């Protein structure tokens, strides 16, 4: 009997896109649910997940929160095709790249976006940019030149790294933030190579389309 997968998403989020991309790379069918911001923050979403954060994956009605936990569960439930290598050191490297993308790129990038729209604090901006600079330095040290973040085959590292870099490069710049640290040569080369993967490019274009729609609504 097929398992029902329901994923609560935010189309612009560098946290939900990695989970969607992982599911798509595995060829899995799942239902996308895009709740409103008010529903997540103050509405009935609290009955689904008291921590009120997206993404949330429901597996036959069982609620799983936190993107890293969701990612590991997907690998446990659906090991084929594998998005984690077999060798322990290789697995650790993939997880390290994914963690750098989440903690040092996506997290501070989202903080920057919130600061731009709600506070414009120079302290928050400085701390966020400092974290991003460290994250980019880590990527430049450990990322492969391509075709994927960890080498020759796709992994959960690509699922995290590609949306985080796209958020930095395209989303923040289109929203008016122009002081993002420069990427290193290896990072630029790998990002360009990753975008040749159809699943990755389709996911990034989904983020782009969502932003264009939101900007059009704002301007309209």
From TrEMBL:
Keyword Magnesium: no
InterPro entries: Glutathione-S-Trfase_C-like, Glutathione-S-Trfase_C_sf, Glutathione_S-Trfase, Glutathione_S-Trfase_N, GST_Omega/HSP26, Thioredoxin-like_sf
GO cellular component terms attached to this protein's record: cytoplasm
Domain GST C-terminal: residue ranges: 87-220
GST N-terminal domain segment(s): 3-82
Keywords: Transferase
Protein's UniProt name: Glutathione S-transferase family protein
Record organism: Altericroceibacterium spongiae
């Amino acid at each position: 009997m097929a398992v029902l997968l329901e994923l609560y998403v935010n189309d612009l989020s560098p946290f939900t896109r990695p989970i969607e991309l992982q599911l798509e790379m595995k060829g899995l069918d799942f239902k996308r649910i895009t709740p409103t911001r008010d529903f997540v923050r103050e509405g009935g979403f609290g009955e689904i997940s008291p921590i009120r954060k997206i993404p949330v994956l429901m597996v036959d009605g069982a609620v799983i929160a936190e993107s890293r936990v969701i990612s590991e569960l997907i690998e446990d439930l659906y090991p084929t095709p594998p998005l984690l290598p077999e060798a322990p050191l290789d697995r650790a490297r993939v997880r390290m790249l994914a963690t750098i993308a989440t903690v040092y790129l996506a997290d501070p990038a989202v903080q920057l976006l919130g600061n731009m729209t709600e506070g414009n604090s120079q302290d928050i901006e400085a701390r966020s940019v400092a974290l991003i600079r460290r994250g980019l330095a880590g990527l430049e040290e450990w990322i492969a030149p391509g075709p994927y973040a960890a080498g020759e085959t796709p992994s959960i590292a690509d699922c995290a790294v590609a949306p985080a870099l796209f958020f930095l490069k395209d989303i923040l710049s289109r929203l008016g933030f122009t002081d993002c640290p420069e990427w290193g040569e290896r990072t630029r080369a790998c990002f360009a190579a990753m975008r040749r993967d159809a699943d990755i490019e389709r996911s990034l274009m989904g983020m782009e389309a969502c932003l264009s729609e939101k900007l059009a609504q704002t301007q309209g």
